[in-house]
Design goal:
CATH superfamily of the largest domain: P-loop containing nucleotide triphosphate hydrolases
CATH topology of the largest domain: Rossmann fold
Strand content: 5-15%
Largest sheet: 5 strands, parallel
CATH architecture of the largest domain: 3-Layer(aba) Sandwich
Shape: globular
Structural class: alpha/beta
Number of strands: 7
Length: about 500
């Protein structure tokens, strides 16, 4: 089949050029995208086929996949709209992963043929031209063909760990507590952790649990909302109502419930949810609100919005409309404390079940290494954690490289903070974020220079915690999260 051939060629190319693999959900998205489906259609189709996948999750996985293909081909633009052209053109040109020629050079040679459709990079520098996979101990591509996507190794760290993956590590009692809480009428679960610590993977399992209870599910990410909508409460709440309605495949009746003259925005939104949405769903509605920390510094709406969430939770526990509100289950995820909410009695962050996702401990890293097929002893686990701690994303990257025999652990540790290391994209992203926030950058410099944990102002502390670059010791003192960050930023900021 052409689709299967395209995918296998692409998966081999990505693994050979980047050392990373495409997971099973990305394979499914690849095939659906070949059919020209939108992300909403992809999510609906995969859900109907028994794979729990939201539109937002599909977008994140798809975006990560196009980024990898872009990196593997050396092109500046690869996305859902042009990836078929890119792959077919390279295949036709003979740039097979089984050949020793550079795919990036072949891509550059195609400029004259398809440049109107693709944005190619400048020619490779001499340094890049002279960098070969053999220098990184990557096995010959022809030897990767049979194992480029083994059942375990193919499920990787590029996004949330898919449902059913053996690579998911339970951090009990976290999961069981969430499952028990979300079944309670009017439940509110709050999940806090920096990015890439496993929030979305946990949320996907909560969603799966709720689907087994036949709950209706709506997941909204505030990363998807235009910044302009967050400066005015009325359009912001209409945005939420619209997307809840759309994802439930219900008719849009916002105009029927929005009284501009006699009711405020919060009351209109509550009426819409209670009298329309909740009356249409059985037995319950799980509403997931992801990345809510984007709202924390929106002074125009922060207090009203989070006060509204608190009121929905309280409505399920008291009042004459308690019955209908009991249908609502809320999950909210965020990266740092809601330090700008003025009235704690109007905050949803001190009610319900609070979940703080911890790093992996040595036993969990050992368990994950075993799932990757690595027979590591305690000393090897200790070596890795001395550099990256128990950070789930960083641990996964190292185990993937080791399991695919891209590089021995000792060599990986040696080059970890360098441009040739497996973490370079992750580290560059953090560096870029810091340089865009000069005040935060200065505070981080002070942390780098300190030989011991230091005290920070609340705002500074919470902002740095949300990046994941620091952690707290003794409940309040800030320290660089891991040796990898300390070494890289000492080299690049001092």
């Amino acid at each position: 089949m052409e689709a299967e051939k395209l995918f296998q060629w692409t998966a081999n190319l990505v693994l050979t050029e980047t050392g990373e693999s495409l997971n099973q959900n990305q394979e499914r998205i690849f095939y659906k995208a070949l059919e020209g489906k939108t992300y909403q259609q992809i999510a609906d189709s995969l859900t109907n086929e028994g794979h729990s996948l939201s539109e937002d999750h599909a977008k994140r996985l798809g975006s990560a996949m196009w980024k990898l293909i872009k990196q593997a081909t050396g092109l500046k633009k690869v996305d859902k709209n042009n990836f078929r052209v890119v792959i077919q053109a390279l295949m036709a040109k003979g740039s097979s992963p089984s050949q020793k020629q550079s795919t990036q050079r072949v891509a550059s040679d195609l400029v004259s043929q398809i440049s109107p459709n693709l944005d190619f990079p400048l020619p490779l520098t001499e340094e890049k031209k002279n960098t070969s996979l053999s220098k990184l101990n990557v096995p010959p591509a022809e030897n990767l063909r049979g194992r480029s996507r083994p059942q375990i190794l193919g499920q990787l760290f590029l996004g949330p760990v898919e449902i059913g993956s053996q690579l998911y590590i339970n951090r009990q009692p976290v999961e069981e507590d969430c499952y028990q809480e979300i079944e309670k009428p009017g439940a509110l679960v709050r999940i806090k952790a920096p990015k890439e610590m496993g929030k979305t993977s946990l949320i996907e399992r909560i969603i799966q649990h709720c689907r087994k209870q036949e709950y209706r599910v709506v997941s909204l990410s505030f990363e998807d909302i235009d910044k302009g909508l967050m400066s005015d409460l009325d359009p912001f709440l209409k945005w939420i109502c619209f997307h809840i309605t759309r994802k439930l495949n219900l008719p849009n009746r916002i105009a029927d419930y929005w009284d501009e003259e006699f009711s405020g925005s919060k009351m209109n939104c509550s009426y819409y949810l209670k009298d329309y949405i909740l009356s249409e769903v059985e037995p319950a509605l799980l509403l997931v609100l992801d990345d809510v920390d984007r709202i924390f510094e929106q002074n125009e709406i922060v207090d009203d919005f989070f006060g509204l969430l608190r009121s929905w939770h309280e409505n399920a526990n008291k009042g004459q409309n308690r019955g209908i509100w009991k249908k609502l289950r809320l999950v909210i995820s965020y990266s740092t404390e809601a330090y700008l909410i003025k009235d704690i009695n109007q905050s949803p962050f001190n009610v319900g079940l609070g979940v703080l996702l911890p790093e992996f401990n040595p036993d969990q890293v050992q368990e994950l290494a075993t799932k990757y097929g690595l027979n590591w002893c305690y000393e090897e686990i200790e070596k890795l954690m001395a550099v990256v701690g128990g950070h789930p994303h960083l641990v996964q990257i190292a185990l993937n490289w080791a399991a695919n025999k891209i590089m021995p652990l000792d060599e990986l540790i040696q080059i970890a903070p360098s441009e040739k290391g497996p973490y370079i994209n992750h580290l560059r992203r953090h560096l870029q974020n810091l340089t865009q926030q000069p005040e935060l950058l200065q505070i981080f410099r002070e942390l780098l220079e300190a030989n011991a944990p230091i005290s920070l102002k609340p705002t500074e502390k919470f902002k740095l915690l949300s990046t994941g670059l620091i952690k707290l010791e003794n409940f309040d003192l800030a320290v660089i999260r891991c040796q990898l960050y300390r070494l890289y930023f000492q080299q690049n900021l001092t």
